[in-house]
Design goal:
Length: 149
């Protein structure tokens, strides 16, 4: 199958370090993503994307490729049932850079199967997550849950 790339960027009125910390602080991710991203964030370590609802389901898994605080995170990304099938893993790169007194966050999601459910999900999901993060950082309140409805 053909592989495709999805990119999304946004400008956030928040300091680079504060925005970076919001990617990993479970109290913050619960507000704007309704999930926790769990790992020790060392290259080669596993990470999981765990729901904060009553089921606490693990919705995504992967490996930390690069963790360069406060500007760059690279992880692999897969459905839990595909954890051992590296052919099904995609790669997410998140960069945060200062830009004229604000921060620019960019998400690049690569190695996605064209037409896949994963591609459909992240095409809706990343803009919602990043927009909710921006809203939380700038107003103190995240957007309501907009996916899975």
């Amino acid at each position: 199958m053909d592989k495709v790339k999805f990119e999304y960027e946004m400008y956030v009125s928040a300091a680079q370090e504060k925005l970076w910390d919001a990617l990993f602080d479970p109290k913050m991710t619960e507000k704007y993503w309704q999930h926790e991203n769990i790992s020790d964030w060392k290259p080669g370590s596993k990470w999981t994307h765990k729901g904060t609802d009553n089921e606490k389901s693990i919705d995504l898994v992967g490996t930390v490729v690069e963790y360069s605080k406060p500007s760059r995170l690279v992880i692999t990304w897969a459905d839990p049932q595909d954890e051992n099938n590296k052919e099904k893993h995609s790669t997410v790169t998140i960069t945060i850079q200062p830009y004229r007194g604000v921060s620019k966050i960019k998400v690049t999601h690569e190695n996605l199967e064209s037409g896949s459910e994963m591609l459909k999900g992240i095409t809706d999901g990343w803009p919602i997550v990043v927009s909710s993060l921006k809203t939380l950082m700038e107003t103190g309140n995240a957007l309501p849950k907009l996916w899975g409805q």
